[in-house]
């Protein structure tokens, strides 16, 4: 049985055939993808078996589309909670363990009470226990130093980190655009 159109999102690639975004993966609902095809803003790279019909036309739903016009990615990513997690790869920067997002917190390396700023350079991902243990102390008082010195990442670095977290559902037509070069890198090692 064919899936319903609702479960047929299109993977959106930039004009250079890289996904617009890896994490979250750039997916458009089928209506948006079909509309972009009709507006001639995208090329269809791959299709689902699933078709949609209207009185005047029938078309197979696009599974991969690429933008005709290249969208430059901003070099400086937004300083958001999520992007800090992504920079730190969802890993507590003190005990180095992985945690689901809802179990992660933020730690000010130099505590706010001691003049520490809320910035890329002073905020790191921490699990709740490490955050509690470190408390309001300076790194030299607690002996707890972040695994990596926190810096502002580039958009490229965040994209690369996002690649490490594939979405739950991957249509087979998407794989070539997401993982081929990772496999190639592994092979050449
Ligand atoms: Zn921890």
Helix content: 25-40%
Number of strands: 6
Low-confidence stretches: 181-189
Secondary-structure content class? alpha+beta
Radius of gyration: 21 Å
The SSE order reads: EEHEEHEEHHHHH
Q: How many domains?
A: 2
> In whole angstroms, how far apart are the ends?
42 Å
Largest sheet: 4 strands, mixed
The average pLDDT score comes to: 89
Beta-strand content: 15-25%
Molecules bound to protein: zinc ion
Structural features, described:
- It is a single chain.
- The chain starts with 9 loop residues before the first strand and ends with a helix.
- The longest helix has 9 residues, at 30-38.
- The strands form 2 sheets. Strands 2-1-4-3 form a 4-stranded mixed beta sheet.
- The protein has 7 helices and 6 strands.
- The chain is an alpha+beta fold and 189 residues long.
- The chain has helices at residues 30-38, 81-87, 128-134, 139-142, 155-163, 175-178, 180-188, and strands at residues 10-13, 27-28, 42-53, 58-67, 104-108, 123-127.
- A hairpin with a 4-residue loop joins strand 3 and strand 4 (58-67).
- The protein has 2 domains: 1-70, no CATH class; 73-166, DNA Binding (I), subunit A, CATH 1.10.30.50.
- Bound molecules: zinc ion.
- Zinc ion (ZN) binds next to strand 6 and helix 3.
